[in-house]
Amino acid sequence: MRAEIIAVGSELLLGQITNTNATFISARLAEIGIDVYYHTVVGDNPDRLKKAIGIAQKRADLIVFSGGLGPTKDDLTKETIAVILETYLENNVDALNSIEDYFLRANRIMTENNKKQALILADSFVLKNHHGMAPGMALEKNGLQYILLPGPPHELEPMFEKEAIPYLLGALGKQEVIVSRVLKFYGVGEAELEDRVQGILLRQSNPTVAPLSSQDAVILRLTAKANSTDEAVKMIAPVEKEIRNLVDEFIFGTDDDTLSSKAAELLKKSQLTIAAAESLTAGLFLSELASEPGISSSLKGGVVVYNEEVKVEQLGIPQSLLDEYGVISSECAEALAVKVKQKFGSDIGIGLTGAAGPSPHDGKPVGTVWIGIALQNGEVSTFKLDLSGNRNTNRRRASQYALYYLIKELK
Amino acid sequence: MRAEIIAVGSELLLGQITNTNATFISARLAEIGIDVYYHTVVGDNPDRLKKAIGIAQKRADLIVFSGGLGPTKDDLTKETIAVILETYLENNVDALNSIEDYFLRANRIMTENNKKQALILADSFVLKNHHGMAPGMALEKNGLQYILLPGPPHELEPMFEKEAIPYLLGALGKQEVIVSRVLKFYGVGEAELEDRVQGILLRQSNPTVAPLSSQDAVILRLTAKANSTDEAVKMIAPVEKEIRNLVDEFIFGTDDDTLSSKAAELLKKSQLTIAAAESLTAGLFLSELASEPGISSSLKGGVVVYNEEVKVEQLGIPQSLLDEYGVISSECAEALAVKVKQKFGSDIGIGLTGAAGPSPHDGKPVGTVWIGIALQNGEVSTFKLDLSGNRNTNRRRASQYALYYLIKELK
């Protein structure tokens, strides 16, 4: 099955927004073995949309549309498709109810325009929208599959995964379900990880194992196709185990976990409190932890000790220690962790010091970072990083590594 | 002139990367009055690329290509265009020199493959690449304009602005230069801003005035076309003045300014030092300031006082004040600002307290935030926000508003 994705919207052609929907849809179609041959973007113009559809009909078996399902006069994707397919739009009771429900929940008044959104292509299958008003649609005509999706990514993405993918699997005659499991790594580069699990990557077929890289983690996505969710889960388990046998030390979480959510979860579970003394990160570590709801029972607070005199005055780091070992040292990171733990009466103390850049600091090259972790039993560990980014990627990575080492200690 | 942008690259069709190049090129073309009618994405496949070009030739006067100019066998944009246009590739001495220079500068060894990148379409105009090896090309054939650009955005963007735009203006017979000036706003919504400057927006032509919205600011981009840079700058000045007369109170900076860079600049200029006590933002405000290089002479540090007892113990906020007014109050924000200024011996103190969400806090609804600013002369101001985002957009906006109010005080 060859697919084409047509995004409809003049704002895309004006460069006001980026076509991230095509990226998302392409990645999900690749997972179920559908090849995407073209992306097309066309404006809110019925003639040009008609021509684009005409071209796609000749070169694709599946056309996925995004955008143009809204309530305004500019939204004309389904109207244009109705003309081309020589069919008509009809009111869909479920869709109308769902739109009315949406307005009730949002406590807003429904306008006549919104009723337009309850119109669907005759004989189409409704793709439910749990995050907005416009229902999606799927239909087959003359051997071609058409999928219509709303433009906003937070509506399109769950609709595509939960409604369109099962529809497509059915259309492909596959009695299949797709189950994905994401393993999240830190402290290891994508190339090194691929190298270490290469044997598994090479013989992958079902489940597939795809390495992905994001800003804050390296990811392996395991995707199994099976006749039932249970079966798919059972197919993924041994592959996950095999991967864990090779590289478990770098896995900090799964699926929707982030470094901060995992650290917050483990802190809550262990009923331990934490405080931090931050130099180069200047509050970034604590702020990341505080992004997690319900952290207040674990997070006491901390100090930002940006320059040397503040470290001495506010935390009581001995000036002699700084003179002997320097501000960027294992000894300073340890002292920051121990002192902030004492000062805030927390179970765990974290210390962060380093040279973020752009210039070397206290004789240490840009990217040198020391992290200290003082535990409730009195033990203190320190970790050294040699980062190679710019000022702000170094600061961010230092904060993320501190979360990663914290997770390892809490496990 | 009708334009089409064709991005070449299988990784786009696999959903591994997003076509941000089309967004960038579209926005720049809109500025010089060229309408983009279609974006197309096609894989590294010569047959399908040929077909895509054939379609574009029928519906566009200008085709802009991105990607496929690299050294590998998969890179075949210029080779395919050569076949279609019945022309040939020739070695370009300047391009080869520039590639050799690049390898010298990068201290890397040049391979035979890289010489392929010095081949350009016969009779084409070379678009210089100052950030990579592949030169771009521009040529006219049978009344159509073809522009070829490398895929990596950090190479494509400067090449398009500095090389392709002047070429296009020349091709359009315009002896013009384009100059843009960006005004950055905070504390005002895009809709309200547009409403207040509507008179200017409506009669805009040269300079054009385009409202843009980004995560952290509302932006007006003024773009003038003129015969010289001087003339363009002179055309922008009165329009900027007129805008400032209407909404100057919301303008925090221009061009590349961010809230944190502007705050850091004003702190340095005034030689004032700063400290902050952060509750809901938990270090985010200080971390934003610390993202600016050279901030260490201004930024003393601060405390993260996440829960009530820490506010009392670490900063000496009177328990009676918290009991009387609550943690989320003008009084608490003021006390945080004053106390942290005293404790750190800084000229300015900032206090941040509020209910980030997801649940109300201390009887205050989600999104209620108080910001306190204590100045060197003993004056203290407090500001209330009623934010409507989720936990982390509220935390981020609170931090950004604190920077914005700080900028206003420093001005």
From TrEMBL, chains A, B:
Report the InterPro entries cross-referenced here.
CinA, CinA-like_C, CinA_C, CinA_KH, Competence-induced_CinA, MoaB/Mog-like_dom_sf, MoaB/Mog_dom
Sequence ranges assigned to domain MoaB/Mog in this UniProt record: 4-171
One Pfam family in the UniProt entry = CinA_KH
> CDD domains, per this entry?
cinA
Record family assignment:
Belongs to the CinA family.
**Name recorded for this polypeptide:** Putative competence-damage inducible protein
**Organism expressing this protein natively:** Sporosarcina highlanderae
**Gene name per UniProt:** cinA
